[in-house]
TrEMBL record, chain A:
PROSITE patterns: TRANSKETOLASE_2. Keywords: Thiamine pyrophosphate, Transferase. The keyword Protein transport does not apply. Belongs to the transketolase family. It holds the Pfam family Transket_pyr. This is Transketolase. One of its GO terms (molecular function) is transferase activity. It comes from Candidatus Yanofskybacteria bacterium RIFCSPLOWO2_12_FULL_43_11b. InterPro entries: PDH/Transketolase, THDP-binding, Transketo_C/PFOR_II, Transketolase-like_Pyr-bd, Transketolase_BS, Transketolase_C. The keyword Transferase applies. SUPFAM superfamilies: Thiamin diphosphate-binding fold (THDP-binding) (SSF52518), TK C-terminal domain-like (SSF52922). Its cofactor is thiamine diphosphate. It comes from the Bacteria.
Automatic annotation (TrEMBL), chain B:
Residues 17-265 form the Transketolase N-terminal domain. Its cofactor is thiamine diphosphate. It holds the Pfam family Transketolase_N. Belongs to the transketolase family. Keywords: Thiamine pyrophosphate. This is Transketolase. InterPro entries: THDP-binding, Transketolase_N. The keyword GTP-binding does not apply.
Length: 329, 296
């Protein structure tokens, strides 16, 4: 059942009663909140100010907002220089371009250089929808996860995105925040615990555990509830920080349940599922099924139909849980 | 004659630059790898920087209001290391550790390893944007320090360089001076064969920069240009410094094959003479006929 300590919203399973907001909205709010707290916070944007919701910060702190034009490589470089000087820069764009196009600048000039630039990649995942494959970032978690020193966060809703943005401002490290374009259910609350590097148990269970990140976590919670009706007791863990990953929580969940399903809106190669598998294969190997994009590109469509068509809907998650359980020795 | 440096001081710096070249040949020979030509060509500018232009303190490399020297083309870092050692950042003997395991003197410079190195660099086309970030932040805070960015001409091929040039022009970063080592060579050949850069002067002007062109091996000319740059209020300035790659050693000058190899380690017979480093050192010591006997 739903973990009361997670302080999730009431009626969590009824999508029609939940507020719908994109995680990028939480990013915009978090930027303003961080900017109010500390005037070292600056925001750079590559000609996508409204799309990334950086415009609230730009309106409130125009002297700390820097428009760089369609130049993601330079955006990463300028931010590196500003962070080296002592600022706390956030760079905002679509994830396909940043950290996609400017990957080498992030590796060399932010991470080897070891300066605390915050990279916000919006429009990540298949749920970008009608824009199609070119704009649906499905590889960004993998790109960021393999770079030493980089922190990787994937918030599950707008409220968590705001908390993640604020926390990232003050963690002193290069940090990637992955954001979505589509409106998605807001199911956490201001009281839901959030700590970088600490996974949260959203639902307890003993037969299997779903470890997910991003907006698909809502599907995971619905799937777990439906499975309960079928007599399967399935836990759900929000692994919002993919790096450093919360090994302890993941290992304990694997020990308790003996079957894992990872859920993410990302290629199954190199994302959260891979990170979970790395932890478990070293410490406590159990059967794992991978919900995500199966080594292919996206296409145009509306977000919900794409999520279903690409095998990340509630039904697909339920099947994966049953399969993982059936593979237990 | 320069308005900004006395004849005597300029002569002192010329001698220092030559000492730096000698250290460079010794360190590259010891390391067995590294970039000779560009490093020799930039000895004069680095010497002028550390001994006349920069506001810096080798004993307090992190002082807040120091001028920032961003080296974009990190591969010529050996000459920077040599001049930094001479300026007192670390012992001269440490130069022998260049490129060796455990050294602070990495093959391409790393910020976190050696105090006084502002940025990690090497991958080309990345210095100007970082320098622009420093300059932008300094302007926000009303800081008076200057940011200098040393670039190669080869990295003018890189698109990111021009993204950064456009940015600095837009924001009128007058506290930024870029210096391009216009030595006309890059690793695969002569720049105008690999990817023509000219008219480089007109390109930067079109990006709203103030452009100066000088003989980059003439210390007086460089000091004058650096001072003029500081006086330009509305624009960033780029100094296109025409240098001779391999300057000081006739066998190397203008030969692009010396871009990325050390004395005695080249791919062709001519580069494999064991006595080559000694010969180069002898030639450097007799530059301008200062020690005629050693040449005989």
């Amino acid at each position: 059942m739903v973990n009361k300590e997670a302080r999730l919203v009431e009626n969590i399973l009824d999508k029609s009663k939940l507020e719908m907001l994109a995680t990028r909205v939480g990013y915009g709010k978090g930027l303003v909140q961080a900017g109010e707290k500390d005037d070292r916070v600056v925001v750079l944007c590559a000609d996508l100010t409204e799309s990334t919701n950086s415009h609230w910060f730009a309106e409130k702190f125009p002297e700390r907002f820097i428009q760089v034009g369609v130049a993601e490589q330079n955006m990463a470089l300028v931010a590196s220089g500003m962070a080296n000087y002592g600022k706390i820069p956030f760079i905002s764009s679509y994830a396909t371009f940043s950290p996609g196009r400017n990957n080498e600048q992030i590796r060399t000039n932010i991470c080897i250089n070891n300066v605390p630039v915050k990279i916000a990649g919006s429009h990540a995942g298949i749920s970008v929808g009608p824009d199609g494959a070119t704009h649906q970032a499905l590889e960004d978690i993998a790109l960021m996860r393999v770079i030493p020193r980089m922190v990787v966060i994937v918030p599950c809703d707008a409220i968590e995105a705001q908390k993640a943005t604020f926390a990232a401002a003050f963690n002193g490290q290069p940090t990637y925040i992955r954001l979505g374009r589509a409106k998605s259910p807001v199911f956490t609350t201001q009281d839901t615990p959030f700590e970088l590097g600490k996974a949260e148990i959203f639902r307890d269970g003993k037969d299997a555990v779903i470890i997910g990140c991003g907006m698909l976590l809502h599907n995971a919670l619905v799937a777990a509830e439906e499975l309960a009706g079928e007599g399967i007791d399935c836990a759900v863990i929000n692994s919002h920080t993919i790096k450093p990953i919360d090994e302890k929580t993941i290992i304990e969940a694997a020990q308790k349940t003996g079957a894992v399903v990872s859920v993410e809106e990302h290629q199954v190669n190199g994302g959260l599922g891979s990170a979970v598998a790395e932890v478990l294969s070293k410490n406590y190997p159990v059967p794992q099924e991978f919900i995500g994009i199966q080594d292919r590109f996206g296409e145009s469509g509306n977000p919900n139909e794409l999520v279903e068509a690409f095998g990340m809907g509630v039904g697909s998650i339920k099947e994966a849980v049953k399969k993982a359980i059936s593979r237990k020795k | 004659m320069s308005q900004y440096i006395s004849d005597k001081k300029a002569e002192e710096l010329e001698i220092k630059a030559n000492e730096a070249r000698e250290l460079l040949i010794e360190m590259l020979t010891e390391a067995g790898s590294g970039h000779t030509a560009g490093s020799l060509g930039m000895a004069d500018i680095f010497t002028a920087m550390y001994f006349h232009i920069l506001n810096h303190d080798p004993k307090n490399p992190e002082q807040e209001d120091r001028d920032r020297l961003i080296l974009s083309n990190g591969h010529i870092t050996p000459i920077r290391y040599a001049v930094m050692a001479m300026a007192g950042y670390f012992p001269i003997e440490e130069l022998k550790t260049l490129r060796k395991f455990g050294t602070r003197l990495q093959g391409h410079p790393e910020k976190d390893r050696l105090p006084g190195v502002e940025t990690t660099s090497g991958p080309l086309g990345s210095g100007l944007g970082q320098a622009a970030g420093y300059a932008y932040a300094a302007k926000m805070d009303g800081k008076k320090f200057r940011t200098y960015c040393l670039m190669s001409d080869g990295e003018q091929d890189a698109g990111a360089t021009w993204e950064s040039a456009m940015f600095a022009g837009k924001y009128k970063l007058s506290n930024l001076t870029a210096i391009i080592d216009r030595n006309n060579i890059q690793i695969d050949g002569m720049t105008e064969n690999i990817m023509p850069l000219e008219n480089l002067h007109a390109k930067y002007e079109a990006f709203n920069w103030h452009v100066l062109e000088i003989d980059g091996n003439n210390i007086e000319a460089f000091v004058d240009a650096a001072n003029e740059a500081a006086a330009i209020y509305e624009k960033p300035t780029v100094i296109i410094a025409h240098t001779i790659p391999g300057k000081g050693i006739k066998e190397i000058e203008f030969d692009y094959r010396w871009h990325g190899i050390p004395p005695g380690a080249g791919p062709e017979d001519i580069f494999k003479k064991s006595e080559q480093a000694q010969k180069f050192l002898a030639e450097l010591r007799t530059l301008d006929g200062k020690i005629e006997s050693e040449h005989q």
